Every structure is written in C-alpha cells, then in structure tokens.
Amino acid sequence: MDVNVPDARLMPATLAPPAAFSGRGRRFAWTLLLLAVAFGAVPAAIVGTGSSYLAQIAITTMIFVILSASLNHVTGTAGLLSIGHAAFYGIGAYAAALLSTKAGLPFMVTLPAAGLIAALFGFLVALPTMRLVSIYFAVATLGIGEMIYVVLLNWVDVTRGPMGIRGIPPISLFGWQADTLLSRYLAVAVIAVACVWVLHRLTHSYYGNALRALREDDQCADSMGINVERLKIESFVVATFFAGIAGALLAHTSAYIAPDNFRFMESILILAMVVVGGLGSLPGAVVGALFMIVLPEALRDIGDYRMIAVGATMFLSILLLPKGMLAEGTALGFVRRSFSRGWATIAGGMPVGWK
Amino acid sequence: MVFDVFFLQQVINGLSIGCVYALMAIGFTLIFGVLNVVNFAHGEVYTIGAFVGLMVITAMAPPLLAVVPLVLAVGAVSGVGLERIAFRPFRRFTDEASQKSRAMREATLLSSLAVSIVTREIMMHIFGGDMQGIPSGYLLQQPVAIGPIMVASGSLVIFATSAVMLGALQFLLYRTQTGLGIRAVSNNQLGARYVGINTDRTIVTTFAVGSMLGATAGILVGLYDGAISPHMGFAPGVKAFVAMVMGGLSSIPGAVACALLLGVSESIATEFLSSGWKDLITYSLLVITLVFFPQGLFGHGRERA
Predict the structure, then answer these.
(1) Shortest alpha-carbon distance between residue A147 and chain B (Å)
(2) Which residue range(s) make up the domain with B80?
(3) Cα distance from B104 to chain A (closest Cα, Å)?
(4) Residue A344 placed within a domain
(5) Between chains, do A304 and B125 touch, taking CB under 8 Å as contact?
(6) Where are the transmembrane segments (chain B) (predicted)?
(7) Which residues pair with B158 in a beta bridge?
(8) Is residue B305 a part of any domain in this protein?
C-alpha cells in the first residue's frame, strides 16, 4: 500500500480544491498552468502594453506572495499567530538597502544577507518569546514589530528616518542588470517561485507534519517526543528569513524604501492574505496574496470608495468561507483518500470510510 | 531633585492618559472574557464616541453633563451593532470544537478588523481625513492650581469620570444578575449555557458595556486634546490592547493597573526622550513583562485545553 505522506499533499500554487485532487497529473497540470501564467502571460502583457503600472503590480504581487507564504509557514502550519511580520520584511529591506548603498555590495550578496540578517533578528526575538502561548505570543510579536518600526523611523543617522533611503541599485547578476520592466519582473518572479517551492518542500514533509502537530496541540506534541521549543524557533526563523528576502526584493525593485512600508497595518494585510486564502494552506496563501493585491487595484475606478469595498470584500470572504478560499485539507480526508487508493487494487474500487 | 513640580505634573498627565487607556482596556478585557477573541474594532467605537460628541456639541450646544449620557448611549448602540455584524455570524457553530478552533478564532479577529476598516473609511468620507477642532467653549484645558501643581481641568474630569465608571462597572459585575451572567460566560461559555444563561444576550450586553466605556474615553480625549480625526482610535486601541495582555487577558484590575503604568511611563519618557521614541518604552515594557511573566502580570496559569 502506497501511503506516501509527503507527496500526497497539495502542490504549491495549484488552484484545485482539496476534493478535486485525485491524481498527480491534475496537480501537475495546475502547477504548469500557473507557471505559464507567471512566466508566459504576465511577461507577455508587460511587454505588450509596456505599462510600468502593470509591471509594478506584478512585482508587488510576487513580493507579497513570498510574504504571505512565509507567514503561512509560521502562523498557518506551526500555529504561532505573528502580527509583526512586516517588521522583518522591513529589516530585510533596510539591510539590503544599506549594504548596497553604503557598502556597495552586489545583489548576489545583499539578497542572502538580507534574509540572514532578518533571520538573525527573528532568532533573537524567538528565543525569549517562544514560551508564550496563543495571544500572548501574538501581542509580543506586535510589540516587537512596533519597536522595530520606531527604530527604523527614529534612528536617523543610519536609516535616514522618515525620509527613507533612495537610489538603491536595481537587481543585477554577474554584470547583467535587470533595468527593464520585464527583466525586473522576471527576476522577482523566479526568486518568488523558488521561495514558494522551498516552503512547499518544508511544509509537505514529515518535518511539516511535526509543525502541524504542535499547531494542533503543543503539549501533546511535546509528550510524543517532538522538540516543541526548537521547532517553533526554527519555523519562526525560516519565516523571518523569507520575509527578509522579500524585503530585499522590494528595496532593489522600487529603489526607495521608507519606514511606512513596514507598519503594523502591513503585518495585518499579510495576515489577512493568509486567512482569506486559508490558514495552513500554501496554495491558499498564494491566492490570498493575489486577491488582496489585485482587488484594490482592480477597484481603482471607484476611487475613494476603494478601501470600503476592500473591507467589505474581506468581510464577506471571511463570512462565507471562514476556513479560507483554499482550505487546508483535513487530516481525516487525507487518510481516507490514501487508504482508498491502496484499497482500490485489492477490493475492486470500494472506497474506505463511513459516508 | 527628582520629584520636582514638573515631574509631578508629568505623572498626573500620564495618569489621565492611563485612565483613557484603562477605559478602553476594560472594553477589550470584557469582550475577550466572554468570547475569547480580540475585538479589533474597539478603536473605532472610541472614534465614533468622539465624533458623535462633536456633532452634538456643534449642533445643539448642550451642557457638558448632557453630552456624556448621549455618548454612552451611542457607544452602547455601536457595540451592539458591532456584535451583530462582526461577531454574531461567526457563532453559527456553538459546539466546543468550533469554539476552540484556530481558524474560527482568527476569522473573527479579521472580521472585526474588516468592520473597523469599513467604519473608518466611511467616517473619512463623512468628516474628511483632517483633524477637526472642538469648539473652544467645551475644551477642558483650563489650568487648575492644586498647591504648587498646575493641572489641566481635563485631567480632573477624566479622573472623575473614570472613577465613576469603574465604580459602576464593579457594581454591575458583582452586584447584579447581568454581571453574574457576564462572569459566568467568561468563566465557561458552554457551562453557562447549560445552567440556563442566555449567552447570546449576555454577549450583547458585554459588548454594549465595553463600548460605552470606549466611546466615553473617545469624547474625553477629544475634549482634552481639542482635536479629533477618524484615525484617532488606532494608537490608543493598540496601547489598550497591550495593557490588557500585560494585565493577564481576563483580569480587569490587571488591565487598569497596566494601562496606568503605560500612561505614566509614556508621559515620563517624553521628559528625557524625544517624542518619537516614546512608543519604544511602551513596547519594551510589554516585551519585558511577557518575558518574565508569560501569563501577564495578573493572569493565571495555562488552562489545559
């Protein structure tokens, strides 16, 4: 009987609802389709229209895909509600900006360095706060997020305070400069897809199942021999690392960053993406990011009423789909499907279960 | 000498800010007690209180004592409305598993956030995003001399109002049937339902009471500061939330004590730090408290789910 736990989960960036993924082929097709959109249709549209507005939205979406996928890793999979995620995004952005403008380091160095510096801060934050549970942890992350914002805003000597940092060089690799709209978008898209893939491999594995175990009941997981403290710290560090990467991408693509990009409301926006998309579901996080970035832009025509419409849509989507657009598949459903698949060869296609 | 007059004045200013945080933090605590969720729209109730107060003052110019009951009523109505829109629909599932489900809890958190975004944007449309001035006749900024210390009359009004409201709240919670219901539901919602308490009505009452306190805080700050804006609810909302958590989530005395602590430390911090760094004090206090007291200062141990 082939009950392959890691592989029987959803692939990233698939749009298929959990009930519909019976075959590996269908998931593969969805993944291909989304990759085709990301690397075919969107670049074609950018080249076709030559609109920098479109490119900017596409780049922002990709950056927020990384952010919401990384928040989903810590909040959705490991169950630690973090409402200070934007601060680590900010640390990454400032690290990349300062390293490239002051120290003149190339993108190849600043990108991983931004991630590592954000992860280092994440580690320092995680050490004392990991024994906090539920809402206490959430408020600690809120407090730390605000502290980081206050420092970015007021430490004028280093961060230039509210004026922000200007003139950050664009993405460049071994002498090749991503200075056209298309190349900028493609560079960001490749990195975003790589990040989502890494997060997918991390979550859809036995390691990811251990994270889910401590989300469901950390005391129980502890008694089963899972090193809860260590896993919590690791998941937080991984999430902050990817937030730092997203920050570096923002710094290098927009050439200008200011502390207001990393405020509390930004953290809430990322959380909203994860919850609207479906807590614990990586495809959900991706779709949530698309939804929350594209919707306000699509509603630009109604001008001042845009935010009201965004709030109302957010409310309705939570009201009608409290588990998110692409909810994480239930453990019971997964077990039933796996057994059915194994059973099918023996019992002549009789499904297992009690429905 | 450390305890000079200026320092004492700062402490009194801080205490009055702390009282405002405390009034809001109690609303958070009450609502968290009965529902186990954070009400992100609490800051908007505070703003609504301030704006309704301003509208009444500009339209009818009533005496100040008449404004307060009106704001209380508006607070109660907005609390009930908020509960109806943002919280009631998510209580469709009343079984224990759903009540403890993380997805459901975070859904309510975001639904209240969505309601607060919509409310704030609607207020922006009606009143504009700028600061609105309060008519000078109502401002509570006359200096009052108490011995060597000069205190703004607003501080005294805030102290008096907070004391009255805290007293009334204690009476409500510990001397009335309704209060008994609220305490029972916060203790165990399912248990309260089993012994015949109408939990839905109790929750609505709790929202009404909490929002009355929040709306009063709003108009008091409006009169004290002299200017209000649709964004004014955000910062005190976050501070009150922090105070509630520092106090241990379900403890009203804890929330009040921590709110006063935050107010005083912020106000003293402005003496030797530039105002930009003021917030750092608040959040450092929060983080230090949580590191040494993971359940808040007055919270009790972790319940086995």
Answers:
(1) 5
(2) 1-292
(3) 7
(4) no
(5) yes
(6) 12-38, 45-61, 67-87, 107-128, 148-173, 203-224, 244-268, 280-298
(7) none
(8) no
Q: CB distance from A341 to chain B under 8 Å?
A: no
How far does Cα B121 stand from its chain's mean position? 21
Size of interface A-B (CB pairs under 8 A): 116
B242/A315 Cβ within 8 A: no
Within 13 Å, how many C-alpha atoms sit on residue B296's CB side? 31
Pairwise CB contact (< 8 Å): B294 & A318: no
Q: Is B276 on the interface with A (CB under 8 A)?
A: yes
Give which of A132, A139, A217, A273 to mutate to test B binding, by max B Cβ within 10 Å.
Answer: A139
Q: Which chain A residues are closer than 8 Å to B302 by Cβ?
A: 133
Is B42 part of any domain?
Answer: yes
Q: Compute how many other C-beta atoms are within 10 angstroms of the C-beta atom of residue B262.
A: 26
| Furthest C-alpha separation in chain B | 61
Tell whether A139 is covered by a domain: yes
Q: What is the CATH number of the domain that holds A116?
A: 1.10.3470
Number of structural domains (chain A) is 1
Q: Does A182 fall in a domain?
A: yes
A128 vs B contacts (CB less than 8 Å): 287, 291
Residues of chain A contacting B107 with CB distance shorter than 8 Å: 275, 318, 322-323
Residue B217 in any domain: the answer is yes
Domain with residue B2: its CATH number is 1.10.3470
pLDDT digits (tens, 9 = 90+) for B211-251: 999 998 888 888 888 778 888 888 888 888 888 888 888 78
Q: Is residue A5 part of a domain?
A: no
The model's pLDDT over A105-157, given as tens digits with 9 standing for 90+, comes to 788 888 889 999 999 999 998 888 887 877 788 888 888 888 888 888 888 77
Q: How far apart are CA B161 and CA B147, in angstroms?
A: 22
Rounded Cα distance between A93 and A66, Å, is 14
Q: Look at residue A260 in the predicted model and tell me its pLDDT.
A: 83
> Are the beta carbons of A237 and A122 closer than 8 angstroms?
yes
Instruction: Tell me how many domains chain B contains.
Output: 1
Q: Which domain holds residue A329?
A: 22-338
- pLDDT confidence bin for A66, thresholds 50/70/90: very high
Residue B40 CB-density burial (10 A; 0-12 exposed, 13-18 middle, 19+ buried) = buried
Q: How long a stretch of residues is chain B? A: 305
